[in-house]
C-alpha cells in the first residue's frame, strides 16, 4: 500500500451513529449489473474479471488501496472507458457502445476525484451546466422563439435554485467557484451532478481532503439525496468510518481484482480484505 493510502487510513474516522445505519434502508431490485468486466491500458490490467451489482436505492461503496481500479470502474459505468471484456446491464438492458453522453442521458451522473468545475463561473452557473441535457431549446430556438426558450430557462433556474437551497449554499450562489474553499467546491460539484436529476449518482472520493466537519456535512447530504430523491449511489471512499456507517454493501478491489463483496460487517471480517486494505484493528 502506498504512503498516501496509509496516511488516509490513519486520519480519524468519521462516524454517524445509528441514524445513518444502512439497515433502515429498503433497497429495490438490481438496477445495474456488471458482469466479468476486464479493462487494460497497454500492459496495465486496471480491472480483471470484476462482477458486482447495484440495487435500486442502495448506497454501494467501492473501496481498496490506491491504484486498485476504483476510478476505472466508475469510468466504465459512465462510459468514459470501454472494457475489453464483460457486460453491463442497466435497467435490464445490455448496454452497447455506451459513451459519456449516452450514460448521462440514461440517468447516470458523477463527480470526479479531482474537482471538474468551471472555476471562473458562479456557483449558480456551474449548477446550471448540470441541466444542459434537460434543455430542449438550442441556440437557434432561443433566437427564433424567444418566449418559450426564456420560459424554459426560468424553469431550469428554479430547479438549480432548489438544489442550491438543498445543499445550503445560498450565500455563495453568485460567487465564482475558484474563490471557494475546497470543501464547498466539492459540494458545488455534487450540486451540478444533482442538477441532472440522476437515477444513479457516482461519487469518486467526495470527501477526500476534507476536515471532519466538512465530511459530516457531505455525509449528511449524501444520505439526504438517497432518502429524499431515492437516488442510487455508488461511492468511492477511503474513510472507513464513513463507508461502514452509510453503505448498504461494499465491494473491495485490490490490484484490479475483486477481493470482497458484502455488507459492511461481512467485509470488515473478510480476512483477504483485512490483509490487503483494512489491516488489524478495524
Ligand atoms: N487512462 C489511463 N491510462 C493508463 N493507465 C491508467 C489509466 N487510468 C487508470 N490507469 C491505471 O489503472 C490502474 C487503476 O487506476 P485507478 O485510477 O482506477 O485506481 P484507483 O483505485 O481509483 O486509485 P486511487 O485510490 O489512487 O484513486 C492504475 O495502475 C492506473 O495507473
Ligand atoms: Mg481513484
Automatic annotation (TrEMBL):
This is Amino acid/amide ABC transporter ATP-binding protein 1, HAAT family. Keywords: ATP-binding, Cell membrane, Membrane, Nucleotide-binding, Transport. Pfam families: ABC_tran, BCA_ABC_TP_C. Residues 32-280 form the ABC transporter domain. GO terms for molecular function: ATP binding; ATP hydrolysis activity. PROSITE patterns: ABC_TRANSPORTER_2. PANTHER family: ABC TRANSPORTER ATP-BINDING PROTEIN (PTHR45772:SF1), CONSERVED COMPONENT OF ABC TRANSPORTER FOR NATURAL AMINO ACIDS-RELATED (PTHR45772). InterPro entries: AAA+_ATPase, ABC_AA/LPS_Transport, ABC_transporter-like_ATP-bd, BCA_ABC_TP_C, P-loop_NTPase. GO terms for cellular component: plasma membrane.
Amino acid at each position: 500500500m502506498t504512503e498516501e493510502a496509509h496516511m488516509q487510513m490513519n486520519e480519524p474516522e468519521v462516524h454517524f451513529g445509528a441514524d445513518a445505519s444502512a439497515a433502515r434502508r429498503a433497497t429495490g431490485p438490481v438496477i445495474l449489473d456488471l458482469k466479468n468486466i476486464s479493462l487494460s491500458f497497454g500492459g496495465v490490467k486496471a480491472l480483471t474479471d470484476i462482477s458486482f451489482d447495484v440495487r435500486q436505492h442502495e448506497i454501494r461503496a467501492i473501496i481498496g488501496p490506491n491504484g486498485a481500479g476504483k476510478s476505472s470502474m466508475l469510468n466504465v459505468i459512465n462510459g468514459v472507458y470501454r472494457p475489453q471484456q464483460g457486460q453491463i446491464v442497466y435497467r435490464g438492458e445490455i448496454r452497447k457502445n455506451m459513451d459519456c453522453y449516452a450514460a448521462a442521458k440514461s440517468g447516470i451522473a458523477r463527480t470526479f476525484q479531482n474537482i471538474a468545475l468551471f472555476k471562473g463561473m458562479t456557483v449558480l452557473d456551474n449548477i446550471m451546466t448540470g441541466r444542459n441535457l434537460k434543455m430542449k431549446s438550442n441556440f437557434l430556438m432561443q433566437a427564433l422563439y424567444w418566449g418559450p426558450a426564456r420560459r424554459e430557462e426560468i424553469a431550469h433556474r428554479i430547479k438549480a435554485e432548489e438544489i442550491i437551497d438543498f445543499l445550503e449554499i445560498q450565500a455563495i450562489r453568485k460567487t465564482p467557484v475558484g474563490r471557494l474553499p475546497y470543501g464547498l467546491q466539492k459540494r458545488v460539484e455534487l450540486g451540478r451532478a444533482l442538477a441532472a436529476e440522476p437515477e444513479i449518482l457516482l461519487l469518486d472520493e467526495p470527501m477526500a481532503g476534507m476536515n471532519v466537519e466538512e465530511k459530516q456535512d457531505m455525509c449528511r447530504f449524501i444520505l439526504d439525496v438517497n432518502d429524499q430523491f431515492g437516488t442510487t449511489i455508488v461511492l468511492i471512499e477511503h474513510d472507513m468510518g464513513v463507508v461502514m456507517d452509510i453503505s448498504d454493501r461494499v465491494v473491495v478491489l485490490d490490484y484490479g481484482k475483486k477481493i470482497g463483496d458484502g455488507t459492511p460487517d461481512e467485509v470488515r471480517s473478510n480476512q483477504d480484505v483485512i490483509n490487503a486494505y483494512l489491516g488489524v484493528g478495524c
